[in-house]
Amino acid sequence: MSTKRQDYISWDEYFMGVAMLSAMRSKDPNTQVGACIVSEEHKILSMGYNGFPLGCSDDEFPWNREGEDNKYFYTTHSELNAILNYRGGSLEGATIYVTLFPCNECAKAIIQSGIREVVYDDDKYADTAMVIASKKMLRAAGVTLRRYERSGREVRLAL
Ligand SMILES: [Zn+2]
Question: What is the set of active-site residues?
Answer without folding.
Answer: 79
